[in-house]
């Protein structure tokens, strides 16, 4: 039976999934994020990031302090596109200049 | 766009004290918090605090929150936005917020980031079974919402949170089967550890969880002893009938907004993860962005409050506000921090801070607010 050790609850990725990706050569957090969507769910990495960095550290022998946690971009939580456009209009910013 | 003088992100112990200090010096403050009430983690702390009377020692956490909120209520120059999440900090100093599905943009002249920290998770088989919680989540369920999480608990981690939540679980009539701690020694204060031990809870040091079991929800936990390389030793397994596992293996600073803002970050293990470099005024490498509390390095709520006062003072004085005895007040706050960081645990914190220090000139290297 496959061991059910969950690393990423948002995208349902197990420790084995992450280890397989590292073995395939995805050895940075950003690469693993792009290929697997780890850290891109509602938690935005708050749950999984430390666990993934630990896996990278174990596999590569690099201390966590030398592993980049990737790029952090706004927004930190989901928001509807409609709200952004509305906000832009109300904020006095013209959409077409 | 809403003009704001000082934006404070997060209304926990650090943010509230920052707001009080900055407002007392005459600046206009906006406190934003994603919850529908302020106080942060203080609101669920039913135990009395340590430290000195300046940090409300011997007062219960939720009473401290009340005291701070009373002060804020009386201040005309503090505005509060609840149920509001800061979504991003941009290069031009614009900060975006979400409130009730509305997207709001503001441009503060100075920002204090006091977002706190989140609970760390642990990887073990079946760690997604219902019944596996963060210890802080269980504390929220019990003390804030009055919900009993289950009947028999395994606590993972013997730091202060693990020990205090174990005690509070027992106060709520829940049986704590055991506390396991992977390290060879108990991390939390001895008084807390002695208290739970006296109530008959075994604390296994050098032990960790091997796996959880259960059909639809947690029914059983298996713990085992660790060797000096932190690997489990076969044959040392103990089986515990529990319906709740509390994970209390540390906190990690909620620093994503600081990364976005371009603050220089450094990994400090003792502080729980990546934390911002700062000067003694708690200004980050981005001019006009200050930090206080757990986001600047996970410590106790007492030091978060003192850091809050310092950051509040620094942000106000950055905008030109003054106090007639500013140096005196600042010296006193620094002195309070030093005494809170006294002793062997404090030594790690002091070392961590030394490696994070940037001098004042370096702090002015990037200016986000021009």
TrEMBL record, chain A:
This protein's record includes keyword Cell division: no
Keyword terms: Oxidoreductase
Listed GO MF terms: oxidoreductase activity
Keyword Protein biosynthesis attached: no
Annotated ranges, domain SoxA A3: 7-85
Any Pfam family matching the protein: SO_alpha_A3
Protein name: BFD-like [2Fe-2S] binding domain-containing protein
Organism (species): Alkaliphilus peptidifermentans DSM 18978
From TrEMBL, chain B:
MF term (GO), any: oxidoreductase activity
Record-given protein name: Sarcosine oxidase subunit alpha
Domain of life: Bacteria
Keywords, in A-Z order: Oxidoreductase
Ranges where the FAD/NAD(P)-binding domain occurs: 5-308
InterPro entries cross-referenced by the UniProt entry: FAD/NAD-bd_sf, FAD/NAD-binding_dom, Metab_Enz_Cyan_OpOx_G3PDH
PANTHER family according to UniProt: ANAEROBIC GLYCEROL-3-PHOSPHATE DEHYDROGENASE SUBUNIT B
A Pfam entry, by short name: Pyr_redox_2
């Amino acid at each position: 039976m496959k061991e059910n050790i969950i690393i990423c609850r948002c995208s349902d990725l197990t420790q084995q999934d992450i280890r397989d990706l590292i073995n395939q050569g995805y050895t940075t957090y950003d690469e693993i994020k792009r290929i697997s969507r780890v850290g891109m769910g509602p938690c935005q990495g708050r749950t999984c990031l430390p666990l993934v960095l630990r896996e990278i550290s174990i596999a590569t022998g690099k201390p966590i302090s030398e592993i980049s946690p990737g790029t952090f971009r706004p927004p930190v939580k989901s928001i509807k596109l409609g709200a952004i456009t509305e906000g832009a209009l109300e904020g006095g910013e013209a959409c077409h200049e | 766009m809403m003009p704001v003088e000082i934006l404070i992100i997060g209304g926990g112990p650090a943010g509230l004290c920052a707001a009080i200090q900055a407002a007392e010096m005459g600046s206009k403050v906006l406190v934003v918090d994603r919850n529908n009430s302020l106080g942060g983690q203080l609101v669920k702390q039913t135990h009395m605090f340590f430290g000195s009377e300046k940090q409300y020692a011997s007062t219960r956490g939720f009473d401290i929150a009340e005291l701070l909120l009373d002060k804020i209520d009386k201040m005309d120059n503090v505005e509060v936005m609840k149920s509001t999440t800061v979504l991003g900090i941009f290069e031009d100093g614009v900060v975006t917020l979400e409130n009730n599905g509305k997207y709001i943009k503001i441009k503060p002249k100075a920002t204090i980031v006091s977002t706190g920290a989140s609970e760390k998770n642990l990887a073990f088989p079946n760690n997604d079974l219902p019944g596996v919680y963060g210890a802080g989540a269980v504390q929220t369920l019990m003390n804030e919402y009055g919900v009993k999480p289950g009947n028999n608990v395994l606590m993972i981690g013997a730091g202060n949170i693990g020990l205090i939540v174990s005690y509070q679980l027992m106060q709520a009539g829940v049986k704590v089967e055991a506390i396991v701690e992977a390290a060879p020694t108990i991390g939390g204060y001895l008084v807390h550890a002695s208290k739970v031990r006296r109530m008959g809870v075994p604390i296994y040091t050098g032990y960790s969880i091997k796996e959880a079991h259960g059909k639809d929800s947690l029914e059983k936990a298996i713990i085992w002893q660790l060797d000096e390389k932190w690997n489990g030793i076969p044959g040392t397994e103990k089986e515990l009938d529990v319906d709740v596992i509390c994970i209390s293996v540390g906190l990690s600073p909620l620093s994503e907004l600081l990364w976005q803002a371009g603050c220089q970050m450094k990994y400090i293990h003792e502080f729980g993860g990546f934390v911002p470099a700062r000067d003694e005024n708690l200004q980050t490498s981005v001019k006009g962005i200050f930090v206080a509390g757990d986001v600047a390095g996970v410590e106790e709520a007492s030091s978060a409050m003192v850091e809050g006062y310092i950051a509040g003072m620094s942000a106000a004085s950055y905008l030109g506000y003054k106090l007639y005895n500013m140096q005196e007040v600042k010296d006193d706050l620094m002195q309070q921090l030093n005494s809170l960081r006294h002793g062997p645990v404090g030594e790690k914190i002091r070392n961590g801070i030394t490696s994070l220090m940037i001098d004042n000139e370096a702090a002015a290297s990037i200016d986000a607010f021009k």
